[in-house]
Amino acid sequence: MKSMYEKLLETAENGALTESMALQLLKGARDPQNALKLFALASKVRDRTLGMDFYWTSGISQVIPCRIAPRCLYCTFYARTEFPPEKLAKTAKKLEELGLKQLHLSGGSNLQGYDKEIIGMVEAIRAVSDIDIEVNLGCSFSAETVRKLKGMSMLSITSSLETINEDIFSQAKPGDSLDMKKRLMETCEREGVPIRSMILIGLGESEEDRIRHLFYVKQFTQLSHLNFSRFMPYPDTAYKNHPRCSPWDVARTVAVARLLMPHVHLGLAAGNTMDDIPLWLMAGGGNQVGAAYVSRMPPEPGAGEQVIKVDEDVYIKNRMPVVERYLEGMGRKVVFERQVTRNL
Ligand code: SF4
Known about the structure:
Layout: H1 4-13, H2 19-28, H3 32-50, E1 54-61, H4 85-97, E2 102-106, H5 115-126, E3 132-136, H6 143-151, E4 156-162, H7 166-172, H8 178-191, E5 195-201, H9 207-218, E6 223-230, H10 247-260, E7 265-268, H11 277-282, E8 288-295, E9 306-311, E10 314-318, H12 320-328, E11 334-335
Parallel strand pairs: 1-2, 1-8, 1-11, 2-3, 3-4, 4-5, 5-6, 6-7
Antiparallel strand pairs: 8-10, 9-10
Helix pairs in contact: 1-2, 1-3, 2-9, 3-10, 4-5, 6-8
The structure holds iron/sulfur cluster (SF4).
The site of iron/sulfur cluster has 10 residues, from loops.
């Protein structure tokens, strides 16, 4: 006889999950026996909708100083200096030479607007490279800038909600605006621009909040990516004693998200490591993986990683050999083609 959990999974496979059913699936997956069944279905749904291949992407973070004031209380990774556009262009070119087709520019943020700056960065890169660009400079772009970026063939615009719980958001991010982040998503939806969004697991939100968050972003037909950060407490921040988020919490949430949004790329963001990839894959995550990241300081290469010097103060950390090996060990191939999907 089928268990209650298995009956819920059947409903999920038919695309008929309500918020309360999704919550039961998430809570029930605290039990690893249930989680294995949830992950199996989520993986099956991913393979059916997004295919078996995975896709490389790359990122340059800290491209402009963060002007959020006061700064988010858990953050140590805000940019202090500008990334000069000519160095940005040179770095994008180098990433393209590595075979990469997609590049994500991120942070800092400015509630008063970084509209002029983002156009300048994209123009500088476009002058030397055809690499597809995605941007994440906070939530302040005007509708006019969104239209302009669309005209420049921007692959997506990011609005990172982090958490849908207003109290937790304002405690952790007193200088940032959840309303503006939501408005940017609405503008992108209206203008037909693919949306990339982020959810930060472990900031103090409840499982109910997570499900509410997934249903909120699910309404956007332009949603192409939802990335999952895993909370990491940094010393010298007000959140230094806040618990580190378990990878199990991320995996359970990814799996439920997959059942709710079969066509959306569900990725791993800040706070995850390459060693989180196997569990994420099992839980229905995919199909984009980070190939290379850029740093302004000489990075310590992890085992199997390569560091490529682009300029005196610009370095690429190439993770492709390690990630490729991990994924090949799970029967997956990683390819260079660009890929954007919609939340259909
Ligand atoms: S907006 Fe981003 S970069 Fe700026 S302080 Fe907050 S978390 Fe850090």
